[in-house]
Amino acid sequence: MAISNFIPQVWSARLQENLHKALVFGKLCNRHYEGDIAQYGDTVHIGTVKDVTVRPYTPGEDIVDPERLDGEDMTLTIDHGAYYNFYLNDVDAAQARADLMDAAMRSAAGRLAEDTEAYVLEVIREGAGTKAEGALPQGGVYELLVDIKTRLDSAHMPKQGRCAVMPPALESQLLLDNRFITGTMGEGRLAEGAVARAAGFDIYISPDLNNEVVVMNSDAVTFASQLVKTEAYRREKGFDDGVKGLSLCGAKVLRPECVYVHTITG
Questions:
Q1: List of long-range contacts for 86-93, beta carbons under 8 Å, 24+ apart
Q2: Of 36, 118, 114, 110, whose CA–CA distance to 78 is shortest?
Q3: Residues 208-234 as b or e (16 or more Cβ within 10 Å = b)
Q4: pTM for the complete prediction?
Q5: How far is CA 155 from CA 51, 149, 159, 259, 261, in A?
Q6: Among candidates 212, 120, 119, 118, which has minimal Cα distance to 164?
Q7: pLDDT tens digits, the chain, 266 residues: what are they?
Q8: Cβ distance 124 to 165 under 8 Å?
């Protein structure tokens, strides 16, 4: 593929698609405030209001004056960036260059996804409203999920969109638990990307976790990302076509009470 035939928009779209497919935590966050990202340091302003008060009604009595809902301006900052920069030598067979470029862009998407996941996970860990730790209960991973569900229900965390992310090793324990297998069969349709459903959670697997279970819902964390640059160039010190690209993103925990991180000890 000669550099004159390189169309940045086409390859950017393909790389963006491959990147999103590889994300787990980035996919579970909401993207409501993504907006236009042009450069590192851009901000997205998010307006929030406190909960509305509900009072008992008595016929014949005046209702109280309306309460003032004070708003809070939260800021999502695009504060994380990563780039790739590679070249293909002119001596590569002409018929193979398109395939080589496609493979290289898939590889770039995979590495960008790893970088993005690590960033989003760290934001979630730091912003979680509940950080618990302890050994697995005698009933194993399934019992742990039930315990977490009970705590979240008691804290009035919304049930809609709940998900639990765990490492592959914990998934393997669930697959050997008859309660999990039976429960999964009766819990209905899985969310896109989920591997199972149990105890009210869509279950996702992340190799970025080791001894943690991360529980959240779709409104808890916001995430914005953009491939802001994809450029082809002629390498000065050689006879090669080069491609470089810049990916920017930002994430923020909006509802800490809806993020629960349990670290398994022992």
A1: 86/242, 86/243, 86/244, 87/235, 87/238, 87/240, 87/241, 87/242, 87/243, 88/1, 88/240, 88/241, 88/242, 89/238, 89/239, 89/240, 90/239, 90/240, 90/241, 91/239
A2: 36
A3: bbeebbbbbbbebbbbbbbbbebebee
A4: 0.83
A5: 15, 10, 11, 12, 15
A6: 212
A7: 445 555 666 667 667 777 777 899 999 999 887 766 778 888 887 877 677 888 888 898 888 888 887 767 788 899 999 999 988 776 554 545 667 777 888 888 889 999 999 999 999 999 999 999 999 999 899 999 999 999 999 988 888 889 999 999 998 888 777 776 665 544 556 677 788 888 889 999 999 999 999 999 988 999 998 888 888 888 777 777 788 899 999 999 999 999 999 999 97
A8: no
Residues 6+ positions from 10 with CB-CB distance below 8 Å: none
Structure tokens at 176: 């050997």
Phi, psi of 190 (to 5 degrees): -85, 150
Collapse the DSSP code of 123 into the 3-class scheme (helix H, G, I; strand E, B; otherwise coil) and give the result.
helix
The sheet that has 80-89: what strands, in order across it? 80-89, 240-253, 221-234
Classify residue 255 as exposed, middle or buried by CB count within 10 Å of its CB (0-12, 13-18, 19+): middle
